[in-house]
Amino acid sequence: MSRIEARRDEDTAATGSLVDLLLGGLPAEAVLTDPDVTASYANDMASFCPAGAPAVVVLPRTVEQVQHVMRIATELRVPVVPQGARTGLSGGANASDGCIVLSLTKMDRILEISPVDRIAVVEPGVINAALSRAVGEHGLYYPPDPSSWEMCTIGGNIGTASGGLCCVKYGVTAEYVLGLEVVLADGRLMSTGRRTAKGVAGYDLTRLFVGSEGSLGIVVRAILALRPQPPQQLALAAEFASGAAACDAVCRIMAGGHVPSLLELMDRTTVKAVNDMAHMGLPETTEALLLAAFDTPDPVSDLAAVGALCEAAGATQVVPADDFAESELLLQARRLSLTALEAVRGTTMIDDVCVPRSRLGEMLEGTERIAEKYQLTIGVVAHAGDGNTHPTVCFDAADPDESRRARESFDEIMALGLELGGTITGEHGVGVLKKEWLAREIGPVGVEMQRAVKQVFDPLGILNPGKLF
């Protein structure tokens, strides 16, 4: 028998032992071993991120089943990669060779909605939009709304500390996670945080887990803060002859003390892509389209004030929506942006650089120069009110030279963001894609401290290995 054949037999035996042990605490239908099936769980939606072949995929339905998986993983020293809906854009949910993929999509129950305490208690597999609709029936509101909200899970949102379109007024996921139940690497169950409106007992371990990308523990339950349902949003669209003028308008709006519920920017490339895909009739003659919305008691007056500021910044046209339905159509156009840009060349690399609002114009101008340098189509959409830009590199993955240029342009955009006093990721996370850039942003001492934290929670290094650093 050759060495390769002997190794293959050893791997098969090891996988068999792993599966047998997992089946000791999981139903057969929750343990997937067919290579064609497990391969479909190998990666999220990010480009240029390597992914391995899982040994097995498990789909637990209870906290006890998750604990069983982690005890077996610890006993056998097998890596575990937690997953939600795999809508991530940084490779954070990508499998490693021989790992257990722990898919939490079957843990999808909303356990409690309390209008008095203004909280919801949910499992990690609950879809963001499903939660929003459920709490809406009680007159409540869960604000974090990523563009993928119809698909992404609350567990994934917590893992990446995701944001969304309404964050300019309401904040990001981290501000709504009050408490967690977490299965640790060795299978122990730990509770963090609280159900109360206030609480400062001990270190804030809840915030530590939010954004940790499954590298410290498995979130199996979350206590989320809710708000009263605001009035419907009324929006306007402002056209600009340059990205710089649109960014000037953003600065005027924020400096003027206005609190829009949404302040989003789409450049000409993005507007054309959305029109090509969805025939939405957006104005393609503009270089930048700024969308602003208010959910205040008097949105008409607020929009009028913001419209005047847009005109002062050089807007060529300001068009308020006639009604709430037209406003929702504008928001839908923005939500379609990333999907539409993917259709331009077949593949995209979606950057996630956040800069101070005052440097937003420089970020757009620099991205345009990078697109010209590499002769690529790079569309930019942005949560402009937060300074969170999504330069999206469109390329043909079958063209090696174009793929190389895409990767190099992506790196230059991240470098530009850091030069402008920003961060390499505002809401998508680090994953595999930005590991090297995280080290550049936080420095060697920062990396050392983060690794020390990882060592405390996961001494064997089995939780989502190879991610973050």
Structure write-up:
The longest helix has 23 residues. A 7-stranded antiparallel sheet has the order 15-12-14-13-17-18-16, sandwiched between helices. Strands 5-6-10-8-9 form a 5-stranded antiparallel sheet. Strands 1-2-4-3 form a 4-stranded mixed sheet. About 40% of the residues lie in helices and about 20% in strands. Strand 17 and strand 18 form a beta hairpin. The chain contains 15 helices and 18 strands. Helix 8 packs across helix 10. The chain is α+β, with helices and mostly antiparallel strands. The chain folds into 3 domains: about 100 residues, 2-Layer Sandwich (Uridine Diphospho-n-acetylenolpyruvylglucosamine Reductase, domain 2); about 120 residues, Uridine Diphospho-n-acetylenolpyruvylglucosamine Reductase, domain 3, CATH 3.30.465.10; about 190 residues, Vanillyl-alcohol Oxidase, Chain A, domain 3 (3-Layer(aba) Sandwich), CATH 3.40.462.10. It is globular, with a radius of gyration of 23 Å. The N terminus is likely disordered. The two termini are about 40 Å apart.
Which stretches are poorly predicted, pLDDT < 50 over at least 5 residues?
A: 3-8
For the record, the CATH class of the largest domain is Alpha Beta
The total count of helices amounts to 15
Computed structural class: alpha+beta
Question: From the coordinates shown, what is the CATH architecture of the largest domain?
Answer: 3-Layer(aba) Sandwich
> What's the Cα radius of gyration?
23 Å
